[in-house]
Amino acid sequence: MYTYYGYHFGGMYLIWWFVWLVLLFIGNNKLIFANKTKKDIILENEFKKLLGNIFINILSDEKVQGYANGQITKDFIQANRGGINKLFYLCGPSPMMEAIEKQLADLQVDEKLIVKEAF
């Protein structure tokens, strides 16, 4: 049971991302993908087809109908986490990951359930 909070990235990270996507199909899991704008979402159509409603996008710099807008907040995590004892896989710039870690701590998520992949 994984919840992925990701950011636009490339190269070897795509391979890791693929591994985590496979894990999304095991259990009640979700992919929450944070980007600045809609055009920044890589492979959006493909992931929508593969993942359906477990592929959740949030855009920080653009308001687009049908997409969450803003930063990943405690309320956003709570509304989308899908369970209490989930493993959270974080990947992205350090400031984003630190902000999400704080939100998870505020939600009393055990540190052992947080996996970080920095770039």
What can be said about this structure in brief?
With 119 residues, this protein is of the alpha/beta class.
Provide a descriptive summary of the structure in words.
This protein is an alpha/beta fold. Helix content is 34%, strand content 25%. The chain is built from 4 helices and 6 strands, in the order βαβαββαβαβ. It has helices at residues 12-24, 44-51, 74-80, 94-106; strands spanning 2-7, 30-35, 55-59, 68-69, 87-92, 114-118. The protein has a 6-stranded parallel β-sheet with strand order 4-3-2-1-5-6, with helices on both faces. The radius of gyration is 13 Å and the shape is globular. Mean pLDDT is 80; it is low at 7-12.
Give descriptors for this structure.
single chain; alpha/beta
Q: Percent of residues in helical segments?
A: 25-40%
| Total tally of structural domains | 1
Rg calc? 13 Å
Q: Spell out the helices and strands N to C.
A: EHEHEEHEHE
Q: Number of helical segments?
A: 4
**Largest sheet descriptor:** 6 strands, parallel
Please name the fourth-level CATH homologous superfamily: Nucleotide-binding domain of ferredoxin-NADP reductase (FNR) module
Shape: globular
Secondary structure topology:
Layout (H helix, E strand, L loop, with lengths): L1 E6 L4 H13 L5 E6 L8 H8 L3 E5 L8 E2 L4 H7 L6 E6 L1 H13 L7 E5 L1
Parallel strand pairs: 1-2, 1-5, 2-3, 3-4, 5-6
